[in-house]
Amino acid sequence: MRHHRTVLTALLATVLLAGCGTQGECTPGGAPPAAPPKSRYAFGLPQGDRSPDQRIESAVYVELARSHCGDARAMMRRKDADGDVPGWGSFDDPRAVLLFQAAVELCDGETTRARTVWDVVSRGYGGWTGIGWDVETTTVLRWHVCEAYKSVGSALLQKSKDDLPCRRADEIAPAIVAWNTGDRPDPRLDGAPGVR
Q1: For 131-184, how does the pLDDT look when each residue is reduced to its tens digit (9 = 90+)?
Q2: Which of 193, 190, 195 is nearest to 95 (CA)?
Q3: What pTM did the predictor assign?
Q4: What does R_g of the chain's alpha carbons equal in angstroms?
Q5: Cβ contact 96:128 at 8 Å
Q6: pLDDT confidence bin for 191, thresholds 50/70/90
Q7: Interior CA angle at 73 toward 110 and 136, to 5°?
Q8: Residues 92-143: pLDDT tens digits?
Q9: Biggest alpha carbon distance in the chain?
Q10: End-to-end alpha-carbon separation of the chain, Å?
């Protein structure tokens, strides 16, 4: 009987130590170390450059940074003084329209909608390279657009903002040039159903 208890105790100790990997990782009889918690990157825009910029992107950014999601959404839909151009139509890059729409969706907690809008860029506009850079010259980086890109990308892709730089493009994608020189159809309607 004593032999069985000794064997059983040795077997139990072996099983417990095996769960720890090597003996140095936990004490005999202790539990294996817990896995480190998975990083969770949430949406949030940094406070910062509040330049008196007349661009719609800057105004929408300010509302999103204040968590005024409804106001930001309304700005995206608002028409100009003549009643002609919706807020999104004042953007000079269709990807920025999609980016800020995704930011509005994230602000409202609509991650699935945000991801749907985000994914339109890869399918229709050649990806995110060049986002935030002036479309005409690619020489000026717009802080609000770049920070929105990093924040939205971080939340949707679960990556650090440091891993999402605003890279300058060597040339403007033809779809962006066509959008800027044409009728500017709403890019949010291209494969992003349910945009409000």
Answers
A1: 988 877 778 888 889 999 999 999 999 999 999 999 998 888 888 888 888 888
A2: 190
A3: 0.74
A4: 25
A5: no
A6: low
A7: 105
A8: 899 999 999 999 999 999 999 999 999 999 888 889 999 988 877 778 888 8
A9: 95
A10: 74
Nearest CA to 86 among 187, 191, 164? 187
In a 10 Å sphere around its CB, with 0-12 CB exposed, 13-18 middle and 19+ buried, how is residue 146 labelled? middle
141 has which bridge partners? 133
**Which residue, among 76, 96, 101, has the nearest Cα to 88 in the 3D structure?**
76
Pair of tokens at residue 65: 């940074």
Structure tokens belonging to residue 33: 């170390």
For residue 2, give the DSSP letter.
Answer: H
Q: Write out the two tokens for 21.
A: 């990997």
Q: Is residue 73 classed as helix, strand or coil in its secondary structure? A: helix
**CA angle, 59 as apex, 58 and 61 as ends, to 5°?**
65
Token pair for residue 62? 């300010």
Q: Are 73 and 104 in contact (CB under 8 A)?
A: yes
> How many residues does this entry show for the chain?
196
Q: Which tokens go with 54?
A: 């007349």
The three-state DSSP-derived secondary structure of 95-164 is HHHHHHHHHHHHHCCCHHHHHHHHHHHHHHCCCCCCCCECCCCCCCECHHHHHHHHHHHHHHHCCCHHHC
Contact yes or no for 88/78 (Cβ under 8 A): no
Q: What is residue 75's three-state secondary structure?
A: helix
